[in-house]
Amino acid sequence: MSRRAFPSAHDLDARAEVTSVLTNGTDLRAGADRDLAERLLRDQQIREAIERFEKTAEEVSARRQLLGTSWKRRPRSS
What we know:
By secondary structure, this protein is mainly alpha-helical. Helices cover 77% and strands 0% of the residues.
């Protein structure tokens, strides 16, 4: 079993082709995701739901922060 120190020209061509296909597929998916997000954000109900979620997330975050920084007093052990 011998290992080549450097990839052959065929290996490099194959890798370039796979990379090209993956990049093109990623671009298509990213474009489709962006288009879907734009269409969804135009919907009034979805915008309102996002605003409600963000408001409750801020309230929960503040509560967690206060609970996380609270100091608990424990009874002394004798």
